[in-house]
Amino acid sequence: MTAPSRPSSPQNAKAGGAPADGADARAGSPLTGLLGRLGTAQEVWIGLVLAVLLVGFSVLEPDSFATSFNLLNLVADAAILLLLAIGMTYVIISAGIDLSVGGLLVFSGVTATKTMEATGGTSTGSLLLGAAVAVLTGLAWGVLNGALVAYGRIPPLIVTLGTLGMSLGGALLITGGVDMRAPGRLNLGLGLDKFAGVPLIVWISVAVTLLLGVVLAQCRFGRHTYAIGSNIKAARNSGVQVNRHLVKVYGLAGLLAGLAGYLSLAKYGITGVSAHSTDNLQAIAAVVIGGTSLFGGAGTATGTVIGVFIPAVLQNGFQILGVKPFWQQVVVGAVLIAAVYLDQWRRKARDN
Hints:
Pfam families: BPD_transp_2. This is ABC transporter permease. It comes from Actinomadura rubrisoli. The chain is mainly alpha-helical. It has helices at about 10-15, 20-25, 30-40, 40-60, 70-95, 100-120, 125-150, 155-175, 185-190, 200-220, 220-230, 230-235, 240-270, 280-290, 300-320, 325-350, and strands spanning about 195, 200. It has a two-stranded antiparallel sheet. Helix 4 (about 40-60) runs parallel beside helix 15 and helix 7 (about 125-150) runs antiparallel to helix 8.
């Protein structure tokens, strides 16, 4: 899941190529070529940071942190955020932003719960219908975001901030501000069942991430996403249907938020109306820490995966060590600022 290879011409580099840092990592010495195949330079560095955190917490608390039970719980907790972050990766690479994903997650979970309640909630058909409603609800919100950004020419920050309020407000109106309980069969089944010792939720998240990572790195949809984020005018001149593509990108982010809402229901058993207010910021932080440029046109799914697990490991390790959870927010905020500064420094160095 690395970035696509370097285009053969300057025009293609702006219109449909991979991010320059990922391409440059493939050129030069055999060592840099090897690093290029493993990931971009920033992915290697943040991967080392993640490895240091894992080793450090394992040494400090070997009987608590470095256990299969704790590590499986850590991965399961990160699985839902990973879905939001992968969708956010596409949005940010296209030079956009989506502040609404937390609200869409909640609204999709609420509508899915209402649907399952209305259809019995115990049959397989009812659970599948709830899943379909959650995913389609998220997709509808995402398409609305994309249409307002692409055709309404409204800045994505304003659009998604507005739909964040609308979706959360709608969820509160439907539930009266009280969490709804998911059908027990969903929580006891999809929420707790495992395959090969790993929760089903994790397998679903991994499968979706792998698929979208390949699409981003190897398929036309991914190349067009990079092209729009790199140079939207050049993308139009190259024949990319920019408006239509942006609707698809935001629709994808909404769809994944809907899926995350359903998996959250399965894992926690309640809609969590007030529990996801910072999910959008966590997803953005994970994507940026993972090396995706806030200016668009650069980033990979591999980096996002690493970026998701850095704050997850910090939170888990701090809890085990008894450190106040506020310190996790301080550290993640500092890492986020450092990641943005590094991105700006790399852009200036590349331009010069």
